[in-house]
Design goal:
single chain, about 575 residues, alpha/beta, TIM Barrel, 2 domains, nine-stranded mixed sheet, 17 helices, about 30% helix
Length: about 575
């Protein structure tokens, strides 16, 4: 089988050469365009020949055979490589397919994706089958191999063991290890983590860190232990420190950390004149943040802040491809590369007028072209949740003395509960709300309170969470029960109930985590949800992330998890989950 694969590849390569020899006609030819050569940082005029999904020629000539060839005159236009998002979390209400198709319309034709949700939702065989399905899309989809869950699971070993982790690392679609949110365990001597990191590096796959606020000493240690990259810099100083230690540094522009403009201002002011070891990313932003695109937005910010034009584009193309060791296929316009090409009206405007992905038109002169392949989610066992249990009043018994106090969208501190939580309705206009985390299979629950999320809302129920377990937040127990019943009818999603009525619902039929529809429709629904929550006292900017990170133990200081309420710093379960 392997031999046949090589023979097929040889035939393909011979066919590419035959195009140049005039024996085979190309599929498309882009004529008279000025393209960015990422290797010399020059803008050069050339004709670019494409056969099916590959660039086969870049130069002055035109092909001898043009019958049936699509000739595109790019006179006065500029061609750049398709943009690459190096750090995608493709499960933030959207699904990886809808995110990819939306991103491609704005020129981001490659995504490097978190695999965490596949670990929670699918066995390995089904997950790997789904990864193969994504290769049928014109957008290039690569994946991570997570080493930790970024929460406290009841049975962590079931998902994160050497057999599972190494199988993911060996998958050809996987290009990095991490992101490593469990780095404190590594520093405490977790040799299993170190072994997985060494295996990743031996396979030529970098390890992505998660090192917010890390000291210089910690950064030195992490580099020694095999962490190659980090995307958690919040200031220009933090970027500079990481660069000097040899890290590949991702500059973040996300819905909860839009740091990119300020970081770039600082770097340019300091006279940084080399950008080879920098990339940009959007770090799994919530849907509305992507209304105008992904990496095109980051490139525009970089250009506006004074980054040299060629470097701004390279940070979203060649630099990424070089870091992940797939620059033989992506990141540039050159013979042998996959035909991911963005056509621009002006080289200072990264919003493309036309986009080619894998040699197919995604948009052409601003008009969207159909992408024929659709993921069959049911085939891969991604379907609505079937509930065989019902939330009851006995589940709404709150007696724990410690709650979670919101400091911002995602940071929680413990506080002593003083409100009478035995009531069916908590007082309106104070900041306390019931918080219930319950197993999606109905086996256990954790009851506490959340301060700072709402002043008056009856209930919000969500199957969208870090682990896919169910979150309830609200003032009124009857509204919680009402929202739960509707959630069961939908098979998963987000439901808001108030004063005995359902006032909002967002079905998430793909395992209760992901929307199955167009990104534009999801963006509109997320905006509606934000408006409703703000009207009922949510004071921050990103309620979707607030819900997602309630269980995320890579953030301080206290979390509600499958094991119970956890003190993150002490790594202690303060109050265990209750079996139902």
């Amino acid at each position: 089988m392997e031999e046949n694969g090589y023979l097929w590849r040889n035939r393909e390569l011979r066919e590419h050469v035959a195009v140049i020899d005039g024996k085979v006609a190309p599929t498309k030819v882009l004529t008279n365009g000025i393209y960015l050569n990422v290797y010399t940082k020059q803008w050069l005029k050339a004709n670019i020949w494409i056969l099916k999904n590959r660039i086969v020629y870049v130069g002055d000539k035109l092909p001898e055979q043009t019958d049936g060839v699509e000739m595109i005159d790019c006179e006065g236009r500029y061609l750049v490589p398709g943009y690459i998002e190096p750090h995608a979390h493709p499960f933030q209400l959207y699904n990886p397919e809808s995110l990819a198709k939306h991103a491609a319309k704005f020129g981001t034709t490659t995504l490097v994706n978190d695999n965490l949700m596949w670990l929670f939702l699918l066995d390995q065989k089904k997950a790997f089958s789904l990864l193969k399905e994504f290769t049928k899309l014109p957008i290039s989809m690569y994946w991570w191999a997570r080493f930790d869950s970024q929460t406290a699971l009841q049975d962590d070993e079931e998902l994160f063991n050497s057999e599972t982790v190494l199988s993911w690392l060996e998958n050809k679609a996987v290009v990095q290890g991490g992101e490593l949110t469990a780095w404190p365990a590594l520093l405490r001597g977790d040799d299993r983590l170190l072994y997985w990191m060494q295996e990743a590096n031996c396979l030529g796959k970098p390890v992505e860190g998660h090192l917010p606020g890390a000291s210089e000493g910690t950064l030195n240690k992490m580099k020694l232990l095999g962490v190659n990259a980090d995307h958690e810099s919040m200031t220009a100083d933090e970027v500079r420190t990481r660069l000097r230690l040899g890290f590949q540094v991702g500059l973040r522009y996300s819905s909860i950390r839009p740091d990119l403009p300020e970081i770039l201002e600082g770097l340019v002011a300091e006279g940084i004149n080399t950008y080879e070891n920098m990339t940009m990313n959007t770090d799994g932003s919530t849907p509305a943040f992507y209304e105008e695109g992904l990496m095109n937005v980051c490139i525009a910010i970089a250009i506006d802040k004074g980054v040299p034009l060629e470097d701004a584009y390279r940070m979203a193309s060649y630099n990424v491809a070089k870091h992940f060791n797939f620059d033989d296929e992506l990141g540039g316009i050159a013979p042998g590369k996959i035909a991911h090409i963005n056509i621009l009206e002006d080289k200072v405007n990264p919003d493309p007028v036309s986009v080619l992905a894998n040699g197919q038109w995604i948009t052409k002169d601003h008009a969207c072209e159909p992408v024929n392949h659709q993921i069959d989610w049911q085939k891969h066992d991604i379907r609505p949740i079937t509930f065989d249990w019902t939330l009851t009043e006995s589940d709404l018994q709150f007696s724990i003395p410690i709650g979670l106090d919101m400091i911002n969208d995602v940071i929680m501190k413990p506080y002593a509960i003083k409100t009478d939580v035995t009531l069916n309705q908590l007082p309106i206009m104070n900041n306390d709300a019931f918080l219930l985390l319950i197993d999606r299979n109905g086996k256990w629950r954790v009851n506490t309170t959340l301060r700072g999320f709402t002043k008056e809302l009856g209930a919000i129920a969500s199957t969208y969470s870090t682990t896919g377990d169910i979150v309830f937040i609200g003032k009124n127990k009857q509204d919680i029960l009402l929202a739960s019943a509707r959630l069961h009818e939908l098979g998963g999603g987000i439901v808001v109930a108030h004063d005995g009525e359902i006032i909002f619902e967002l079905p998430l039929p793909l395992s209760g985590i992901m929307f199955d529809g167009k990104m534009d429709d999801l963006i509109a629904k997320e905006k509606e949800l934000k408006l409703i929550l703000k009207e009922h006292g949510y004071p921050y900017s990103d309620p979707v992330y607030s819900i997602l990170f309630l269980s995320a133990t890579h953030l301080p200081f206290i979390r509600v998890t499958q094991r119970g309420i956890v003190d993150v710093k002490k790594r202690e379960v303060l109050f265990p989950a209750i079996m139902r």
